[in-house]
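Q: Hi! First time doing this. I have a protein sequence and I read that you can turn it into a structure. Is that right? Here it is:
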Amino acid sequence: MYLSVQLSYYPLADDFKPPIKEVVTKLQASGLEVYPNRMSTQVFGEFDAVMGALSEVMKWSFETYGKAVFVANFLQGDRRPKDA
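A: Yes, that's right. Below is the predicted 3D structure, encoded as structure tokens:
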């Protein structure tokens, strides 16, 4: 089953940009299709691969940077941009 996710990450720290960039980099390294923008990051792939990558990245983020908020919208199906 294909999964489309819109993910927003809010590290609870004054210097928030480096953690955001690292989370996006780790998602990109997972082999999934990842499209970051200024408001959120879209992640696309097979359900198990997406959920596994999100679980690993979230755990890593909490262990590395401490408290943060992740907000995600999940949609079953392929919602990749048409021009991708």
